[in-house]
Amino acid sequence: MNIRQCISPRVAGLFPLAVLSIAATSFAATAHWTHATPFGGNVVALAQAPSAPQTLYAFARPGGLFRSLDGGATWSPATGVPPDTGIEDLVVAPRDPQTVYALTVSTSGRSLLRTRDGGHSWLAIGPGSPVSVLAVDGQHPNLLYAATSLGLHRSRDAGDSWEVAAFAGTVITALAIDPLDTTTLLAAVRMSGSDDANRVWKSGDRGKTWAATSLVATPAGPYVDIWRLVFDPARPGTAWALSTAELQGKPGLFRTTDGGLSWSLLSAAGIHDLAPSPDGALFAAINLGVARSGDLGETWLPPLPLSSSYVASPADAISRLLVSADAPETLFAAGTEGIWKSASSGATWSASNQGLLALGAYSLAVAPAGPGMVVAVAGDGVFRSSDQGGTWRRVRSGRDGPQPRVLSAFDPRRPRTLYGLGSDGQADQLLLSTHGSRDWRRLPVPFVCGGDSVCDVGMSAFAIDPGNPDTVFVGGSFYFHFVGGGVFLLRSDDGFETWQSLTSPPGVVVALAIDPDRTAVFHALTCKGLFTSGDGGATWRKEGSGLPQPLCGSLVPTLALDPRQPSYLYVGTAGQAVFGSSDGGRTFSAMDRGLESAQVAAILIAPTSSARLYAGAVGRGIFRWNARLQRWLPLNDGLPVKDFAGVLALDPRDPFILYAGTQTQGVFRLDLRP
């Protein structure tokens, strides 16, 4: 389920309208955002240039295409891929490291692209039907074969023109060329309407004629496909086939040692890719890590299938695997965390992500005291930096157990204690880390799902009492099968042992702010408007005259209270920019000049000055309020604004430093010091 937007108390006490005399400053006009992000990303395609092994290409989702010219040590983006295009596989020409073929999927369908300049420009060269596998003849670089849904296609001019070579009108699910004898091809063909649901065929004359082999995948129900064929580069006649049969609880790995005349079924499951080495070893990408076989796949280390508790190295879900063309002991692996490299035949692995800017940064928080600490939820993990984003360390991964998707607040007295919101797939969870975001445990909030398939718990607001940080509040909504649903607003004063249910204002509370001078005064924002309580949440009155109705739209509104002048409140809306109040929330007026029709997802104020008020607008970037001009001025130099969705944080220790999270390029930092 989607986690509702949560406003942290640190962020929810943000910016004041009290800004009455800010002069436009020259440094704001020249301030430049710079990358300050962890490297990595979900890499789904990886290829090496056979003629120049130091050249590699990788595609990350999100993030785009990257190239390395130093064997994976550093990466740089190749920006010529058309927008909204996802690459599923990459093939580098055998003799030209600048020529790359990309199998893509986009809003217009599947296609085949080619670049001749290392990824800067691309040309569509597809045969006219969706391509699932591309194979290039290593001895004749212009000879290509494409497995499509309408048969096997062949090109003799590097993709400029195509012809149907075999199996016209039939789905080809896998294809491979023997590197020891490129006249030999294997193809997996789905023969609809016959008993041969998916059969492997062999050609010994570059696809002119074909003969069926004995390997047939015949399902009882849905299709069972052979989806990967791999030749051994060291042993003539040896090849492997990976099948989707394992999805039905059966092993999916087959092997032939006689050129396809006979196939044996191997007891191995959970394999996502195979990479045979010229030195005779066979490597497999598995659910978590890489396995190695020294006997053609008969046995594996670690043993396959893996037990649910075993994690191989590298501890990542590996999707693509390759053996280096110039060093059989060197492996590259593509996983959900990025690219991994081993120089020891898989014995040890290290990340090889320098420059791979492909992580989405979905939440940010900066410690208010103690050693400087920035925490980011990026990709599927939690990262921490102690040098303002210069370097990062992954401290938590999705496989480690509960972890947040939203960083709610640091404890103002304990700089290594951090709250967050996560989810178990049904119910949102309130999480706590006491070791600087490394460990996370679920707090016992009363509203949880106990296995009921029709159950939903959403937590949308969190706050810490500024006068007593041991007191916390959480609000949201619930629905239980046979019970019904409702909203909740909870308070705990005793370290989460017990929770007191408070009266909730009408609607789901999406943001909660507590007056630091009068801690019985609460301001709660719902889609129905702003409500204020003067008795600690026992009763509520409707406030917010002048706010637009309804408040919620494509995103929920955000609320900020100025901790230095608590009578000043700000509301960011889903399409009408910012509204401000100077009378404790009773009346609001529009602050939209420079941000007309903007979706404002974040409002921040510097803790040392009510005059420095910032707004984060989805797809438009970050702005600073100028009271003298009565308008918002952009602070977007260097920031990919179309990639910005409102993730914004300010360093309370150094309030001239801002951090922004982007959807595909990670974290950026802005230094506004004069």
What does this structure look like?
- A 4-stranded antiparallel sheet has the order 1-57-56-55, with no helix packed on it.
- Residues 1-28 have low confidence and may be disordered.
- It starts with 25 loop residues before the first helix and ends with a strand.
- The longest helix has 5 residues, at 26-30.
- It has a domain at 26-37 and 359-671: YVTN repeat-like/Quinoprotein amine dehydrogenase (Methylamine Dehydrogenase, Chain H, 7 Propeller), CATH 2.130.10.10.
- The protein is built from 1 helix and 57 strands.
- Strand 44 (522-526) and strand 45 form a beta hairpin.
- It is mainly β and 674 residues long.
Keyphrases for this structure?
43% strand, mainly beta, elongated, 4-stranded antiparallel beta sheet, 674 residues, single chain
Q: What's the count of strands?
A: 57
Largest sheet, strands/sense/barrel: 4 strands, antiparallel
CATH architecture type of the domain at 26-37 and 359-671: 7 Propeller
Strand composition percent:
35-45%
Structural class: mainly beta
Helix content: under 10%
| Name of the top-level CATH class of the domain at 26-37 and 359-671 | Mainly Beta
Tell me the span between the first and last alpha carbons. 44 Å
Strand order of the largest sheet: 1-57-56-55
State Rg.
29 Å
The CATH topology of the domain at 26-37 and 359-671 corresponds to Methylamine Dehydrogenase, Chain H
